Predict the 3D structure of the following.
Amino acid sequence: GRTATSPASFLGRLAMAPVHGVGTPVACFVILGLPLAGLAFVGGTSLEAALRQAGLAAQLRFAVTMQDVRTVILLRRQLSAEGPRRRPWLRISGAARRGPVWRRDWQGVLRWPALRILRILVLGGAAGVAATAAWEGTPVLVALAGLALLVAALDAIEGLAQEADHPTRSSTLPVGRGWLVLRHLAVPVSVMLVVCVVGVAVGGALGPGGLPEVVGIGLLAAIPAAVAAVVGAAVSVSVGPAINPLQIGPLANAVAGVKAAGPPVLAVLGVLPLAAARIAVNANHSALAGAAPAALGVLFVAATVTAAVLLREG
């Protein structure tokens, strides 16, 4: 719109008001009125709430230093007052009641606040935009797409994360820890498939001519991308902090590095079938011939990590 969006730019144009017209002085008066409005309403600020937020921010900084992903997620939700809904968006009935883990995870998803739903959908759209840009010739953006899906999966994996928060409770259940972990992965994968489909739709819509080949290959790549992102998020919240202050030495540093870098690397691997399809197209081969083997390879890696890390942690 041939205008500025920065308040500092509006203030800087005040001296050039005769050149830019009357819009800039009006905007400047509005901006100067914001501090006055703040002073008018600051009297209603709760000091107890401010102290509580300051304490949560200090705990958040410490959790980030320790690379404790689960604590960071919980503290961020407390800071933003992002609590579950009192009433679910939908009621679970029929066949969905048969599996207790399946029902419990869906009950948690259906009580998500609107802000959380909007956030993961926006992350899915961002992943779609990054994947489309990677398809058009910027392959490094594959990493951005994988990281966006990993952040969305950290919300989708809430059921398993709560089991990890209460390890003694899961030990009293009449099922093995391994089967419990596997059952908790079903709903997050379903949610992430929806997020990936949103990303495919956004990426296809923004591409030139709709990019039908990207849409088709994107739907194929959505399965390994969703599975890899969920497994990476599960490793982040189940294994524990990447840095353990009680452990020192080269071996402890190596373990901390694997715990910190493993989930992002796994999430980025989930998007590689799209890059493999593009390489096949550039070599005058079928995109499906490039994406299908890569997708199978990603699923194999995700299954191996699940068996070697998640089930062993149980």
